[in-house]
Specification:
It contains three helices and eleven strands. It is α+β, with helices and mostly antiparallel strands. A seven-stranded mixed beta barrel has the order 1-2-3-6-7-8-10.
Length: 170
Amino acid sequence: MADLVRVIYRKFDGSLHWNLTMRRLGEDEHGVWLGAPANTPISKGHQPMGPWPHAYVCLVPADPDAWWAATFNAEPKSTEIYVDVTTPARWASAAEVSCVDLDLDVLRKRGRSEALLVDEDEFAEHQELYGYPADVVERASATAQWLVRALTERTEPFGSAYVRWLEQVV
């Protein structure tokens, strides 16, 4: 099993979006957990964005049909959990996972109970720009609504399941 994993987010047209290398921390019933200590380099497209100042872990869902990828941030980052609505993640190998970012995002701020749905304007704009098929729009919208409920209700893995994984990189 690869210790380092290349994580690649693309846009619907196939262009490179967020991308970085993370350390495989392990796997549980929720999926594969990947970790990034503070100051991990990250790029947007082919442009380095500098190191990310805080530690975080990402969860690649165990369900191969899950339309999301989650990031759980260490303090002092004000956003505790940030979930991208994506196409299902695909493993090219044990050392590379990728998905398509569909622009809708759901987040929960640290110390807050309610989740927020964000970037609806970008989702609407990109439906036109990239020509999202109707089934993709429907699935992304349904996933976003499910995520708002799951984060607000702290349904695992959006409760405390991530804490033990995050402790490995802080």
